[in-house]
Amino acid sequence: MSSVQRFNVLELKECRDMVFACCSSDQFAERMTRGRPYASREALFETAEAEWRNLSKSEMIEAFQAHPRIGEGKGGDGRFAKWSKGEQSGLGHGVSPDELREANLKYEVKFGFRFLTSATGRTGEAIYEELLRRSERTRELEFATASEQQEKITRIRLEKALASLGHSAL
């Protein structure tokens, strides 16, 4: 049985929780769960992109706000917390926690939502520079960029979620 087939037959709550860990919007998780079955990985990913783009701005911000601030990590031991810690594992180099905290706060005050970037494999210095650069944008442009980053993060996490379901010869 493929990982997508396993995904398709998960109990409703288990599936919704898995999707919510990938993108913390209630509407997104609900729609993706109710959209099963998916014929393939690509069908699932294409649906995820379409469902993300169909969310309202407030529903998107709900997902942005669920992310830990860059440099803070996320407490706990759930799937989302483990993924966030792994994604931000390169942040300990090149920039102080105080600098990140201050830049994050200025960004949030200006835009009304958390700074969001796909941190996987990136250094703290590179992310900090991106945070400063993006802080100079208009809200409209920055919202579009944050939305694109959430889409990218969701794809990465959906791939991890499917991988966690494995593949069997059954």
TrEMBL record:
One of its GO terms (biological process) is purine nucleobase metabolic process. GO terms for molecular function: 2-oxo-4-hydroxy-4-carboxy-5-ureidoimidazoline decarboxylase activity. GO terms for cellular component: peroxisome. It catalyses: 5-hydroxy-2-oxo-4-ureido-2,5-dihydro-1H-imidazole-5-carboxylate + H(+) = (S)-allantoin + CO2. Pathway: Purine metabolism; urate degradation; (S)-allantoin from urate: step 3/3. Residues 9-159 form the Oxo-4-hydroxy-4-carboxy-5-ureidoimidazoline decarboxylase domain. Keywords: Decarboxylase, Lyase, Purine metabolism. It comes from the Eukaryota. Its EC number is 4.1.1.97. The keyword Lyase applies. SUPFAM superfamilies: UraD-Like. The keyword Disulfide bond does not apply. PANTHER family: 2-OXO-4-HYDROXY-4-CARBOXY-5-UREIDOIMIDAZOLINE DECARBOXYLASE-RELATED. This is 2-oxo-4-hydroxy-4-carboxy-5-ureidoimidazoline decarboxylase. It comes from Rhodosorus marinus. The lineage of its organism: Eukaryota, Rhodophyta, Stylonematophyceae, Stylonematales, Stylonemataceae.
